[in-house]
Write a structure and sequence with these properties.
Layout lengths: L2 H15 L1 H16 L6 H5 L2 H13 L5 E5 L4 E10 L5 E7 L4 E5 H5 L2 H4 L17 H5 L22 H18 E5 L4 E6 L1 E6 L16 E5 L1
Antiparallel strand pairs: 1-4, 2-3, 5-8, 6-7
Helix pairs in contact: 1-4, 1-8
């Protein structure tokens, strides 16, 4: 299950349903291409709207919305905001015993309105083209990528996150320069199979009862 390919699928689906964003992104890519023959690493890294589209998609729709971890030793976990227990006690930290299985909600952190604002769950690439709210930096999210947990953080963070970003930018720049993407008319369903993956209502069922993966789109020359 490849997180990068499913992240690309999500971006293409979003671009197909938001043609104004797709056109703006294509214009940026084509303008950069006209200034040189190839878009190398420096050129791709200097495209603000491409970066914004990718960041916003990975924030709102992380391919891996949850991650499980196990505490290797007893630890005290500080809380960002106090919680009140059933007996009325106010806690600012909790004990996590060794061996405790912890479910890390990546998507909840990325959608937290106290961090990202009241529109936290909305897909708005433009939010990355202006300074982010102070609350984003003040939250001190321990992720390695743009104040979000999409690639996790610490010693167990995704070691290939920079390569995956570059690879997605290369693929998108090549596709959008030549092709337009539009909805096919079929209902797309995003299933959590460990990784969030696309299928349709019309997709065939396997013998195990799982729908085959599919992302039908209308593709035409740009």
């Amino acid at each position: 299950m490849d997180t990068m390919s499913n992240a690309l699928a999500r971006i293409l689906h979003l671009l197909s349903t938001n043609p104004d964003v797709q056109d703006k992104l294509r214009d940026e890519i084509c303008s950069a291409r006209n200034e040189g023959s190839d878009l190398d690493y420096e050129a791709l890294s200097s495209l603000p709207y491409l970066d914004a589209v990718m960041k916003e998609t990975l924030r709102v729709y992380p391919p891996l919305p949850f991650m499980s971890r196990e505490a290797k030793r007893d630890a005290i976990l500080p809380l960002s905001t106090p919680v009140t227990t059933a007996d009325g006690k106010i806690l600012n930290e909790i004990l996590v015993p060794r061996g405790t299985r912890i479910l890390v909600s990546i998507i909840h952190c990325n959608h937290d309105p106290e961090i990202w604002g009241s529109d936290a769950s909305e897909w708005k690439p433009e939010r990355w083209l202006s300074p982010l709210p102070d609350s984003v930096g003040e939250a001190r999210v321990p992720g390695i990528y743009s104040h979000m947990l999409t690639f996790l953080g610490g010693s167990r963070a995704c070691i290939g996150f920079k390569f995956s970003q570059l690879e997605m930018k290369v693929v998108l720049s090549l596709l959008l320069e030549s092709f337009k993407f539009a909805p096919s008319g079929q209902d797309i369903i995003w299933k959590w199979n460990g990784i969030v993956q696309p299928t349709t209502k019309e997709a065939q069922m396997s013998a195990e009862g799982d729908k085959s993966l599919a992302l039908p789109l209308k593709v035409s020359f740009a």
